[in-house]
C-alpha cells in the first residue's frame, strides 16, 4: 500500500513538473528561432546563432531557478507545512504558481514573437499549433492532477473519493420531506392538533405552509435551488466553464437512471473519469479564443494583445477550487464578458474568424447570470403568481 501511494505521488509530481518545464522550453525555443531569422535577414546580415543560444540558455536558467526557488519550496509548504496555507481548501496554490511562472511567460513570448515579426515585416512563424496547444494542455494536466491525486487509481471509487473536487452524476444527498397532514373533513369530532382555529385555505394555515415548503408546488429560490434540499456542490454549474455540477457526500446514493437490461454495461460511470471530461470542457472557450490568434490576419495585427491578455485572465479561474461559489462569477467576469467584446471586434474587422456559436454563448451566459442572480430578486420578478 505504501509503495503504491509513493508511486502515485511520484507520478503526479513528475507530470506537474513536466507541465511546468516543457511548454517554456518549446515556446522559448521557437522564439529564439524567430530572433535568429530576424538577425540573419537584416542589412548587413548578422550571425543569429549567438542570439539563439543566448535565449536557449536563458530559458534553461529561468526554469532551473524557478524550480529551485519557487516550485520546490511551494511543494514543501503544501505537503509538509500544511498550516502555512490555512485557507488552501478554497484555492489552489499549485495552480496559482503554475499560471504565474509558466503560463504568463509563455503568453508573453507569444506576443513578443508577433511584435518582432510585425516590426521587421516578416511572416515566418505564427505559433499555430504545437506551442499554444502544449501550453493549454499542460494547464489542463495541472488541473486534472490536482483534482484526482487524492483518489486511488485502482479499484472502484469509494464514498470518500466523491468529495467536492470530483464531479458526480449520482444524487448523494436526500433530505427527508415533511409529510403533509390530511385535511380533516367538516363535522363533529375532536379538533386535530395544530389546526384548531385555522382555516386550511387561509394563508397562515399549517397545510399551506407545508405545501409551500416541501410540497410539489414549492417555489424555487432565485438561485435555482429548492428550499429543504441542501447540497455541497462540486464545481458549480457554470455555462462559462461548461462544467458539470456534483452533489455532496451523504449516506444516500440514488442513481437517476437504473437500467438492468442486457445493455446495462453501457451505463458505466466513474467520477474519476468525469474529471478529465470536466477539465477539458472547462477550457474549451479559452482554447477557441487562443486558436483565433493563430489566424495570420489576426496574428500579424495588434489584436494579439487583447486576445492573449484576456485569455490569460481566464486562466486564473483554475486557481479557485472547483466547489467554490466564486467560480460562476469569475467565469463571467474573466471570460464571458471580455470575450464577448473581443469577438465582436474580431468579427467586425476580420470577418468570421471566430464561430458565432461562441459569441452567442458569451452573450447568453452574461445575460443569464445577471438575470437569474440579480434581476429575479427585484420586486417585479419576485412573485408567486407568475409562471405557475
How would you describe the overall organization of this protein?
The chain has helices at 2-41, 49-79, 93-119, 130-148, 206-214, 271-282, 284-293, 296-299, 304-315, 327-350, 356-373. The protein is mainly α and 388 residues long. Helix 1 (2-41) packs antiparallel against helix 4, helix 4 runs antiparallel to helix 6 and helix 10 (327-350) runs antiparallel to helix 11. It has eleven helices and no strands. Mean pLDDT is 75; it is low at 159-164, 167-174, 194-234 and 237-256. The chain is globular, with a radius of gyration of 27 Å. The relative contact order is 0.10. The protein has a domain at 2-153 and 273-377.
What integer is the average pLDDT? Answer: 75
Low-confidence residue ranges: 159-164, 167-174, 194-234, 237-256
Helix content: 40-55%
**Can you count the helices?**
11
Instruction: Please give the number of β-strands.
Output: 0
Give the end-to-end Cα distance, rounded to a whole number of Å: 57 Å
Secondary-structure element series: HHHHHHHHHHH
Radius of gyration: 27 Å
Residue share in β-strands: under 5%
User: Helix/strand/pairing class, anyone?
Assistant: mainly alpha
Overall body shape: globular
Main sheet characteristics: none
